[in-house]
């Protein structure tokens, strides 16, 4: 038996923190019946967030002590994050001590800007129309900025660090495997500042210089900086070898809207997505031409759109449909987890499994029609449900599409261009049936699982298929 008044402060903190983690877990399941009215009053907003596959959790422990967290708490945090981040980075943890809180409040109340001395290598300068310096900085320095100033460093940016994405995973992989080539592969960072001044040390040498920067703000490159910080925590000795392209644009003397214009345009111009490389595959053009013969528009290049009132679809629809149509569940899960991986290399699998000379254009169009019916039915179920059922409809959509395809070979293999009314009715019925079956499975075997993570886990999805749907 424990007597609370005899427990040490660290033991009491550990106990309270374990309760907190249980609360977070119950929130993600979700189990609103275990919460008070204050939490229940936000149930709708919480359910909307839990239904969004892009939702991330930041778990924050704030305490008044100065000592680092105990090993027991760190162990609990690691175990919890490992469980939550089973398939991708859904959750992150941050602890704030008294000194951290004081500094944050002080910066906020004074509107204090970030002042930094930056070592810039192989640097150059632009004087007109607006002053700027460019060069390269050590990746380890960028990681330090992140640790010291996140998220204030990115306040003007249109988005903060997104965690696990195919782009960020690629940045981390380069830092781990080829850090010396990072400068060549990465687009770099754009930062704004009120003023930038070179210190006298080092003279006029362009090889290296120390620059005093006032009001430092990164407006493009949050993903690069965040990935560098994460890589530094995993492979610090590798990150020490990497250099990062960077430019500092001085705002002093610039027009009033210049800061906003730089932020907007550096985040929208010259962006290339992985799907854009699929445009190099002749099979995409073949499908486009063959579908056009039947009056169906297929677009696979960025910037192309299917006009209003026109029958058609794009490469994302095609990729999801083909992935969910495969015999195994693996590519279905990948389409749910991170569709960009399916376009990684147009010369290799999995791309070649999805798009090759054997893909029939009529079959593909029928798959897309079925996909849309499934999505509409699940959206209706999601809107009229709550709790676990709502989350199953939202996060299990690709899994359910896979089940419907498996049960609809007769409809898929029809030579007709369009689905008939009877076929549409059948697909709706099979969608609802698959949802009911899958929902029961999640309640029976995975009642405490975070469903957004469950349906992105290949091994668990394979287990579900083998146990219930073979």
Automatic annotation (TrEMBL):
Pfam families: AIPR. It comes from the Bacteria. Residues 154-301 form the Abortive phage infection protein C-terminal domain. This is AIPR family protein. It comes from Anoxybacteroides amylolyticum. The lineage of its organism: Bacteria, Bacillati, Bacillota, Bacilli, Bacillales.
């Amino acid at each position: 038996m424990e007597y609370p008044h005899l427990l040490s402060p660290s033991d009491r903190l550990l106990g309270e923190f374990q309760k907190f983690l249980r609360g977070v877990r119950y929130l993600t399941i979700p189990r609103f019946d275990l919460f008070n009215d204050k939490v229940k009053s936000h149930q709708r907003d919480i359910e909307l967030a839990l239904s969004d596959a892009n939702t991330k959790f930041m778990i924050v422990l704030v305490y008044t002590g100065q000592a680092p967290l105990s090993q027991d708490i760190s162990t609990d945090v690691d175990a919890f994050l490992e469980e939550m981040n089973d398939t991708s980075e859904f959750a992150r943890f941050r602890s704030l001590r008294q000194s951290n809180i004081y500094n944050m409040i002080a910066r906020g109340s004074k509107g204090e800007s970030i002042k930094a001395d930056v070592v810039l290598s192989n640097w150059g300068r632009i004087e007109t129309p607006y002053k700027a310096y460019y060069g390269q900085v050590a990746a380890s320095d960028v990681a330090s900025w992140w640790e010291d100033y996140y998220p204030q460093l990115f306040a003007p940016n249109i988005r903060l660090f997104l965690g696990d994405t195919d782009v960020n995973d690629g940045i981390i992989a380069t830092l781990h495997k080829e850090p010396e080539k990072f400068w060549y592969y990465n687009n770099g960072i754009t930062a704004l500042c009120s003023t930038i001044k070179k210190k006298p040390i080092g003279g006029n040498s362009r090889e290296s210089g120390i620059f005093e920067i006032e009001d430092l703000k990164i407006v493009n490159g949050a993903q690069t900086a965040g990935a560098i910080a994460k890589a530094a925590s995993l492979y610090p000795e590798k990150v020490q070898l990497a250099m990062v392209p960077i430019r500092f644009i001085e705002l002093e003397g610039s027009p009033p809207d210049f800061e906003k214009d730089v932020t907007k345009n550096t985040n929208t111009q010259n962006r290339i997505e992985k799907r854009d490389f699929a445009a190099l595959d002749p099979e995409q053009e073949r499908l486009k031409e063959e579908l056009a013969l039947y009056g169906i528009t297929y677009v696979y290049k960025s910037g192309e759109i299917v006009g209003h009132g026109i029958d058609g679809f794009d490469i994302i629809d095609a990729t999801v449909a083909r992935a969910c149509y495969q015999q195994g569940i693996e590519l279905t899960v990948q389409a749910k987890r991170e569709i960009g991986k399916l376009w990684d290399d147009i010369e290799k699998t999995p791309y070649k499994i999805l798009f090759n000379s054997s893909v029939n254009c009529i079959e593909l169009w029928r798959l897309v029609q079925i996909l849309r019916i499934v999505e509409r039915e699940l959206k209706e179920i999601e809107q009229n449900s709550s709790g676990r059922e709502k989350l199953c409809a939202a996060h299990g959509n690709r899994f359910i599409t896979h089940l419907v395809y498996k049960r609809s070979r007769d409809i898929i293999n029809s030579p007709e261009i369009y689905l008939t009314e009877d076929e549409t009715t059948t697909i709706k019925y099979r969608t609802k049936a698959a949802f009911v079956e899958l929902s029961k499975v999640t309640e029976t075997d995975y009642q405490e699982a975070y469903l957004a993570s469950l349906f992105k886990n290949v091994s668990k999805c394979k287990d579900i298929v083998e146990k219930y749907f073979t």
